[in-house]
Amino acid sequence: MTQTETAPVIVTPEQFLTYWQGQRRLTRRVIEAFPIAQTEDQLFSFSIGGMRPFGVMAWEIYQVSALTLGGLLSGEWPMPDWREGVSFERAALLKAWDDLTEQINRDFLKVDIAFYAQQHLLPWGEMSGWAAAIYAVDNETHHRGEGYVYLRALGIEPPAFYER
Amino acid sequence: MTQTETAPVIVTPEQFLTYWQGQRRLTRRVIEAFPIAQTEDQLFSFSIGGMRPFGVMAWEIYQVSALTLGGLLSGEWPMPDWREGVSFERAALLKAWDDLTEQINRDFLKVDIAFYAQQHLLPWGEMSGWAAAIYAVDNETHHRGEGYVYLRALGIEPPAFYER
Q: Which Pfam families match (chains A, B) (predicted)?
């Protein structure tokens, strides 16, 4: 039934799903690791070198992930409205995050595998479905790495990178 | 000839090679972006929150990448000696980096594609060849993200993340 049995592949859809969700679980732990100092949530206030707070990056990760799932399923890649639905509130972010987790679990394996080799016009350029999918994960890993430095600067030990 | 013609796949070996080398080119630009203040190379001295300087992380990225290429080709995954060949000198790092770039270009497509689905015993656990390959890239993207914060804290605009 699976491609693995007929011809070996680098990664199956099932493996990619596991990989992506593992990354998303780690990012969720990083979100949760940010401290609340008095009434101020460092998730939305702490910053280094003029960069965005990690909570704002996490909303971007969420929106890029949602766009990517939707695009792979529908062929539509609309530029996200970066402010739509975004709330500078930790509980709202985690709720949206968890809803998307369920949606990815429900729908990711419905993606037509032919979509990965095809070229798609994303808001940030034309690329294959593979490049679009892995870009979503790379963007997450990149910003989460930035979040690790914020946590260290706040004196907090970040979650282990290799635990997914 | 290619798998794409017979059955669609998420990513071909050629696409993975292009992807990996794009990431490595970006990391190389980040290495080069670190300033030298008087006689002190910030690549090997600047740090936030007790973390390693970016040059030390870059040597780790280099070693994990070399291990991964070697492991995928040979099935051998020895624990790297993290100090072997490591020099706290920018030119030596870039030289090793460029040599590995050539080696990856020369050898990556020789990897038996069946290796990706098989389980391998890496120094950091048992995983599929796919998981090992993508872990090398993730580790690079993660630490490079940390390097972006260092650069911003030093007042330097990092290279564009999406340019590969």
A: DinB (PF05163)
Contact B134, B11 (CB under 8 A): no
Smallest CA-to-CA distance from B76 within B122, B129, B114 is with B122
Q: Is B146 on the interface with A (CB under 8 A)?
A: yes
Judging contacts by C-beta atoms under 8 Å, the chain A residues touching residue B4 are: 117
Q: Please provide the CATH number assigned to the domain covering B12-33+42-153.
A: 1.20.120.450
CATH of domain A16-33+45-153: 1.20.120.450
Q: Which residue has the tokens 């060849």?
A: B129
CA distance B141 to chain A (A): 5
Strand segments, DSSP code E, in chain A are 36-37, 40-41, 119-122, 125-128
Residues 38-67 of A with CB under 8 A from B: 48-51
The conformation of residue B159, written as its DSSP 8-state character, comes to P
- Closest A-chain CA to B51: A152
* Bridge partner list, B127: B120
